[in-house]
Design goal:
The complex is a heterodimer of chains A (about 425) and B (about 210). Chain A has 14 helices and 13 strands. About 10% of the residues of chain A have low confidence. Chain A starts with a helix and ends with a helix. Classes of the chains: A alpha+beta (about 425), B alpha/beta (about 210). At the A-B interface, helix 1, helix 11, helix 12 and helix 14 of A face helix 1, helix 2 and helix 3 of B.
Amino acid sequence: MKTFRVVWKNLLFNFSSSTLGVLLSALGTAIFCLVLLLSSQINRQMMMNGRQIDLVIGAKGSPLQLILNSIYHVDYPTGNILLEDARKIAQHPLVKRAVPLSMGDNYQGFRIVGTDSGFLALYDLRFAFGKWIVHDFESVVGYEVARAQHLHLGDQIIGAHGLTDSEDLHADHPYTVVGIMERSGTVADKLVLTNLSSVWHMHEHEHHHAQGYHDHHQEGDGKDQNDHVHHEPQGEEHTVHGLLDIGNHGHEITSMLIQYKNPTAVALFPRMVNQQTQMQAASPAIESARLFTIMGIGLDALRILAFVLMAMAVLSVFVSLYNAFKSRKYELAVMRTMGASRGTLFKLMITEGILVTMLGAVLGILLAHLTAFMISSNSGGNMIRPGHFGVSEIVVALAGLLLGFIAALIPAIKAYSTPISQTLSR
Amino acid sequence: MLVTLHDIEVRYNDRTTLSFPAFRVEKGEHRLILGSSGSGKTTLLHVMCGLLAPSRGTVTWQDEHIYQLSSKQMDRFRGQHIGLVFQQNHLIKSLTVLENLQLAKWLARSESGTDELMALLERLNMADNAGRYPFELSQGQRQRASIARALANHPSLLVADEPTSALDDRNTEMVIQLLSEQAAAYGATLVIATHDKRIKDQFSNTYEL
């Protein structure tokens, strides 16, 4: 016969009110925990992905869109820029590394990105198997892509036009998987990389249509291109194109990722690009911060909701303990006659409060992770690792303990100070 | 001498006072406190059992002044020496009969042996109901369960407050017999407070208020 057992039996006996208390604390904790989980992981994800990239250069438009597209690979491109123009920028003495990106296709929802091997250095990517692309229509796939599609070296994958559709297939131009990357924890895990000339070949015919309105052409806008009939490019050379060999053919890319040589470039370089060229420069750090501020409002609202729910839970535990105390007053006095000290009754009440909110907290943490898992599996899950348990969970559990203590305090003091004789004679 | 109450006076919040003539309980000598409602029977019992400190007078248990004990010592003393049976049988609702007995043991900090408690229930013909909750029992069964709980710690004094007020003649007789028998079997001295004159004949020592 222990304190815990007496309390537990009492909770079971008053099942409905105990369940209400547990559920309310669970909901509060779950929302609170989910907010923590999302904000910390989104934050981390932003840090990881933008870490080595100082500037993105792309077509004029929304800088946030450019960053979303070129750093996080979520939004559509702002348009295209000429490789030639981009390369002029890249030759600037302040630039340490410049990596071109060209996109417009996807493989089973994973974006196909034309780039060069500089991309690997920007994201600290390492090969699990294979090597970097040598020939056209070879690809290197990210960890998640390989895992989700069960890809092995030598497998052929078929891209589809647009960034999300899987209808308009480029069945005539399969890519051969020549490399599979290790898990990096960045967005690169969910990309299919190829070289620029493969992307250009794939869309050769579009350039004929697109000439004359380069800057406004939206590659990602699937609707425009769904009508295109994909014909076998007649008489096209399938030879190796070194990156340096192309570039003066009027080729286009989506954007260019820039790494500075030294920090002084921060002040000069973006302004130079914005003022002297037809392109725009956007800083991942600034835009990510802006994005996080915008999302932060939503997170704040959720956080307030979580506090309200937690407060409700505390109130409910308090009310149910207090009511229980009133109806159990006699029972508690009887316990005193059986030899229970004031301290024992105090301990019983406090244990009951803590047990309810602790159960709620544990349930809530599990619920939060389950929700995170559902979110990440529904929405492609670039951002969230649902299996991640951190210090915050321990803090939340401790908070549950503290709230239980607070809710139980007044009933416990009441139980402590109830006069036995008066209560019994009533 | 087991308990001696000397020169007791209790003052209530509304300034009324009750004073009681000296009252002693000899070990093994069952006593009946008889008085009409409001005459202070329950008050006297509470004073005797260390539940209500009198404003004047002394309560001694085998030469020990119990109201000089600390609150904690008093609780412990109560748990170990006194078994109380109430008018309404206040068993703990969320615990089974056996668990109620175990609770009594735990609260009095004495070792709990299930066999011993089952033997006690057996004696009171309650062994079959050991796993049942109070709400599943009849009034009579609940009373037996409370008697068992009061005896669980082998108290030196078994105190019953109006144990028969809700019972008919036949059951009254049975309960009184049960209390006397069990008290004797467990070496406890029985004190009953009641207004029920039906019981009077069965006791030689009556203390009238």
